[in-house]
Amino acid sequence: VDDYSRARFFYPVKRKSDFLECLQQFVTKMNKAQRRIKTVSIEGIQSDWAGEIAHGRTKTWCNERGIRLQHSAPGSHQENGVVEKTIDVVKSEARAIASNAGFLAEFWVFTMLAACHVLLFWPTKVNGKTPYEMLFNSPPDVTHLRVIGSLTYFYNYQVDNKNFDNTRGKPGVLLGYCDRSRSYLIWNPISKRVVR
Question: What distance lies between CA 69 and its chain's CA centroid?
Answer without folding.
Answer: 22
